[in-house]
Specification:
The structure holds two protein chains of two kinds.
Chain A (H helix, E strand, L loop, with lengths): L12 E14 L2 E14 L3 E5 L6 H8 L7 E6 L2 E2 L5 H10 L1 E5 L10 H9 L8 H7 L15 H13 L5 E5 L7 H18 L2 E6 L2 H7 L2 E6 L2 E6 L1 H6 L4 H6 L4 E10 L3 E6 L2 E6 L9 E6 L4 E5 H6 L1 H8 L4 E10 L3 E8 L4 E7 L14 E6 L5 E4 L3
Parallel strand pairs in A: 3-8, 3-9, 6-7, 7-8
Antiparallel strand pairs in A: 1-2, 1-4, 4-5, 9-10, 11-12, 11-14, 12-13, 14-20, 15-19, 16-17, 16-19, 17-18
Chain B lengths: L1 H32 L3 E3 L3 E3 L5 H6 L2 H34 L2 H12 L6 H12 L4 H9 L12 H26 L2 H9 L4 H12 L1 H17 L1 H8 L6 H10 L4 H29 L5
Antiparallel strand pairs in B: 1-2
Helix pairs in contact in B: 1-13, 3-4, 3-7, 3-10, 5-11, 7-10, 7-11, 8-9, 10-13, 11-12, 12-13
The chains are: A alpha+beta, B mainly alpha.
Chain lengths: 387, 283
């Protein structure tokens, strides 16, 4: 697994999951929702479980929250083993230690915002006043409104207030913003980050949206098909994906097939399209092994061969055996940027993201232009070949 | 269009006329009769007196009234306790099972309830099926005297009125949004607590209408008390019937009848008040 999967020793671990599996039986078919999950969540972190639908992230969340039980494995939270706990103990656990927020708010329509929150405080051990919880989410002025008098975002805030009013150890959020429109979702992301800072508790947030995951989290857990693919900070997951799945799932990426010519320590000489180049890599390769070169579109640099011929300085940068020649296939306007799709002479297609020039708002490249593609040295990722 | 308008008007006039002749006028007559005086020749004599209501308040009559309310209350309670679990199962059952169970609830309606009440005597009398089974099993030595007891009346009323409790409860439980139960669970409510704080309040309209549909007819169902309870007037319905047909004290019977109607009206009012409070979602 990725080296960036940090286990901080000095922080308290809130959740510890070991070898979790979950198998659903649907008639004859067995569905493996989780296939062996090991996880440690420190106190006070904003953790995002990121994965496509069906990756097992919601199942994992429900197990952490004591709403579901794993087929095998352990979950330790607050010194107790949730797997061995009875229904009564799980009820206690949900009542005092965790809060849930779902995509659907499940507010009781006949109760006001305050009453919806108060329904929890009457069974909590040491709750904050419902008014304080609602003030935390910015609804101090709307205490006596019924859910039908509140907007979708406000209803979700009431649900969040209700989930944190019992001062839980962890707040578990399962795609809570998916029902909101784009702008409101952005605003709520920022508010949730602030709320976590104010409360100082652990947030575990499930989403399939990589942008949402990156903008909020201290730590991203990328899940796929019931296993954890990578754990790390947003930066490390984006910059150093540990396999092709993660690389493709978070953002756009160019994948170029290559062959390792000369393995080395921390770097390797790699051959692709007649180009021999030293690349940084953490993997130990054998000579002759196939590999993938991964490059983010925004790390690529494209210049026309014509410009290179006219500008010796530019040519010098591109000529250090570190550029690949190809033909522009098309350009795609993206607003602030545009993508240049280049078909390489050696085979394969790469996409480079270019910014507009300050003084020129037209797309510089034309289909059919002969270009050289280079990249910022050291920003490439070389991974072992996968089918 | 013209014809449509005519047809619509005809239907409305027909319905209103029917209600006026067969419901409104008789009720007005009964209401007026309750203020009249008794007369040996004509049954009633025009007057404007509250004497009949005063007579209703005497010891024996009050006992009948209270006894009747107690009995109906008991029947309502038994119906509620039996019907609630049944209705929950019904609401959660898969479609084929649910339809079969609903059919079982409805089938008794296909037979006249008086006939069904007589059928119960065949079950309950000293040589009836229940006694025979118990005797042959050796559980009892002598036949149990089940007929002509308050217990038999309660049993008969419960049997007759149970569907009226099941159906509104089923409707309420079926509409119940399961997501509220999930919310209760993830907010740390025990199943017991979720039942009392979520399921019961949300199905309260069903509970109340079921109780009304059982309690109110139970007070008046004199034939059940006649057939299974013997000569004793256990229900207000029996008392009213007796005043009109046996004792021929029409004003007293009318006063009892008006009192019963007023009681029902009062309870309906209470229900509407509580329903308005329960369903006070903002418009």
């Amino acid at each position: 697994m990725a080296s960036s999967s940090c286990t901080a020793d000095d922080t308290e671990i809130v959740f510890r999951a070991q070898a979790l599996t979950k198998v659903y039986r649907m008639g004859e078919v067995e569905v493996h929702a989780l296939r062996g999950i090991d996880l440690e969540l420190p106190r006070g972190e904003f953790v995002v479980l990121l994965g496509p639908s069906g990756s097992g992230k919601s199942t994992l969340l429900n197990i952490l929250g004591g709403l579901d039980t794993p087929t095998s494995g352990q979950v330790i939270c607050g010194g107790r083993n949730l797997v061995a706990a009875g229904e009564r103990e799980l009820t206690e656990f949900r009542r005092h230690l965790v809060g849930f927020v779902f995509q659907f708010y499940n507010l009781i329509p006949s109760l006001t915002a305050r009453e919806n929150v108060a329904i929890v405080t009457e069974i909590a051990r040491d709750p904050m006043p419902p008014e304080d919880a609602l003030a935390l989410v910015g609804l101090a002025e709307r205490l006596d409104h019924f859910p039908s008098q509140l907007s979708g975002g406000e209803q979700q805030r009431v649900a969040i207030a209700r989930a944190v009013v019992n001062k839980p150890l962890v707040l578990l959020l399962d795609e809570p913003l998916s029902a909101l429109d784009y702008k409101l979702r952005k605003a709520m992301q920022i508010e949730l980050k602030e709320l976590r800072r104010k409360l100082g508790i652990t947030f575990v947030f499930v989403t399939h949206d990589q942008e949402e995951a990156f903008s909020m989290s201290d730590r991203v857990i990328v899940m796929n098909n019931g296993v954890i693919e990578q754990v790390g900070t947003p930066v490390s997951v984006y910059e150093e994906p540990c396999n092709l799945y993660v690389a493709r799932f978070v953002g756009e990426i160019n994948i170029i097939d290559a062959e390792v010519v000369e393995p080395g320590d921390g770097r390797a000489r790699v051959r692709t399209g007649g180009l021999d180049v030293f690349m940084r890599t953490g993997h130990a390769f054998r000579a002759g092994e196939k590999a993938h070169i991964l490059l983010r579109p925004e790390d690529l640099r494209v210049e026309t061969l014509k410009d290179l011929a006219e500008d010796p300085e530019l040519e010098d940068i591109f000529a250090r055996g570190r550029s690949i020649v190809g033909t522009v296939e098309e350009t795609i306007y993206k607003g602030a940027t545009y993508d240049v799709v280049v078909r390489l002479d050696a085979g394969g297609v790469v996409t480079a993201t270019e910014f507009f020039n300050e003084d020129d708002e037209t797309v510089y490249f034309r289909a059919g232009d002969r270009v050289a593609v280079s990249w910022v040295e050291g920003w490439e990722v070389v991974l072992p070949y996968e089918k | 269009m013209r014809n449509d308008g005519f047809f619509k008007r005809a239907v409305i006039i027909g319905a209103v006329g029917w209600m006026t002749v067969f419901a409104f006028v008789p009720n007005i007559l009964v209401f007026l009769a309750s203020f009249c005086a008794t007369s040996t020749e004509n049954f009633i004599e025009p007057a404007a007196t509250l004497r009949n209501y005063a007579r209703l308040m005497d010891r024996t009559h009050l006992d009948i009234l209270l006894g009747s309310l107690r009995l109906s209350g008991l029947v309502t309670a038994i119906c509620l306790l039996t019907a609630y679990p049944f209705a929950s199962i019904l609401a959660r059952a898969r479609k084929p099972v649910r339809n079969t169970l609903l059919l079982l609830v409805v089938i008794p309606f296909w037979t006249n309830s008086l006939v069904r009440t007589y059928a119960m005597t065949a079950m309950l009398n000293s040589s009836g099926i229940v006694n025979n089974v118990l005797l042959s099993l050796g559980l009892i030595d002598a036949p149990l005297a089940m007929m002509y007891t308050p217990g038999a009346v309660v049993l008969g009323l419960t049997y007759t009125l149970l569907p009226f409790m099941i159906l509104p409860l089923y409707a309420a439980l079926e509409r119940l949004d399961r997501r509220y139960l999930e919310a209760a669970r993830d907010l740390g409510a025990s199943p017991w607590r979720a039942f009392w704080r979520v399921v019961v309040p949300l199905t309260m309209p069903g509970i109340v209408s079921g109780c009304m549909l059982v309690f109110l007819p139970a007070i008046g169902m004199f034939y059940v008390s006649d057939v299974l309870g013997g000569a004793k007037a256990m229900l207000l319905g029996n008392f009213i019937r007796d005043q009109f047909l046996t004792t021929r004290d029409w004003p007293l019977g009318a006063a009892a009848s008006v009192t019963l109607t007023a009681l029902m009206g009062l309870m309906l009012l209470l229900y509407w008040k509580s329903a308005a409070r329960l369903g006070r979602e903002a418009s």
